[in-house]
Amino acid sequence: MESNFGIVDYFVFIFSLFLPLVVGVFYAIKDRKTTSTESYYFGGRKLSPILVGFSISVTFLSSITVIGYPTEVYVYGAVTFWYAFALVVPAVIGYVYYIPLFYNLKLTSIYELLEMRFNKTVRMITSAISIFNMILYMGVTIYAPALALSAVTPIKLDWAIALTSLICTLYTAAGGVKAVIWTDAIQSIFIFTGIISMFVRTVVLIGGWDNLFSALAQGHRTKFFDFRIDPTLRITSWSGCFGSSIIALSGLCSNQLIPQRYLSCKSLSDARKSVVFGLIMFGFLSIMALCNGLAMYAYFKGCDPILSGKVARPDQLAPYLSTLIFREISGFTGIFVAAAYSGTLSTISSGINALANLLLEDFVLKRWPNMENKRRLTVSKTFVLLLGLLVTSIAYLASLWGATVFKIIYVTFGTFGAPVLGLFTLAIFVPWCNAKGAIIGALIGTVSATWVAIGGILHPRPLYKNGYLPLSVDECPVPTTTQSFYTEVVSSNYNATEFDLSQGLAQRYTTGSSGLYAMSHLLYGFFGFLVTIFFGILVSFCTGAEDPKEADPKLFMPLFDNHRLPRKIRLFFRFGVPELMSHQNGNGYASGIPLNPADSRKDILA
After folding, report:
1. At the N or C end, where does the chain have fewer CB atoms within 10 A?
2. Does the predicted model carry a pTM greater than 0.90?
3. Which residues share a beta bridge with 265?
């Protein structure tokens, strides 16, 4: 592919990479006398909600949004906008239930809650599953911008992956969470500029809004509502909504990465503000990234870059577009690639920082609880370096999987992240659930979702179920060498990364798995979540359910507990769990349980 990545683009891109290193070195020097892991991981729990909000937004964002979202819209149309609108429900649930629970307990690892509620085994197994999930996720997240860089510059994919990993690891190890959050705030400038400038420039070049909507209508990409009840269809309004809600809720409430950000605030009010601000920003940028996919289709209408041989993979479409539309504006292609990299640097730095904390809190300190602070900090930084190497290895493996980065993320989070969310749901909403039910439910949910995902790879559904929208090379200035059958049939039903041109396309178009293996990958998470809840409750009652009257009310969140509701209704939704009453016994205790969250944590973990 011809490269239009000029000197100014290289300068902008290198500057965006150099800046995080400077911030990391600055905080390494500034905090060189600090030996507290509390400061390294949580910034002393005094960080600004605005800064934390920026960090949450760009951590959620990653290169998957910058690169993956436009590709999804380009291939599947406006129905993919449900990915962004599905954020509303997770935001409300997190705001009302999870954030106050985590914050009031003053957790360092959110999996401490599972030890307090169940036992140490549940905590460690769940933490291990989450660590494995995040390592896979971060590996794919590194792979995406590396793929973009290799698409617009002479830099090979292998070197691009190594460059991304090295920078992330170094500034995270050096500066800790303060470096991560300040860098996130700075990188958000590149992300805003890159995403918005691409949309504005593309709309201008295609001749304005009328031409945009005309092209979308002709390409059948204006359909937003698709309420067909068929879980084997790749994308519908239902699968986009339910699938994205579970993935977002998993990231916000049952994965260390995001909670560690809002737990760094100085008050519950600030923690909530940071999440609201971060999700509003993320929602806006997600919608703009999806709009880039619509504009990208209008620009390439009649001459698809993959069918015409301009790019090798769908995930290279957005970077390739940036080299064309900014050909006459120096630096903006560099800004767009920097936007993809900034999202990744934020996600990886936050992820590595969070996982190092999990390894320290959930495993090392369980074995050596009296380790001195200076050694804890050294161990933490060592974990950061080792995690960086491990994530790099996963990124190289991700390049061998033909699916789009967006699909890979949904498969990994669906199979490993959603069952963990199910376990947290059992812990705080279902007082009858016991330790056996929780861990068996989570393991069955993980195995079931993984089994369906692997089955879907080995026994794919018919191609027509994927809902590929029409693509064409009819208006290309030069003839293409694409196989005739591919041009005639698959150009209307297409994802070049999901099948081989030589493997009987006519047969695979109409035949394939029609059972559980045909389930849309968007629903893997929802499936794993429901399986976890079902077996968690079933096994709990089979092995002796917990008595709600003996439950710690600080570890339970009733579905409805508004003081404006009648008392009978509020008591009903507590399912027998005692109420918190500060006046009872006059000593700060209710039902014999300390009201101070920190005291509760110490007593239960003792």
Report:
1. C
2. no
3. 47
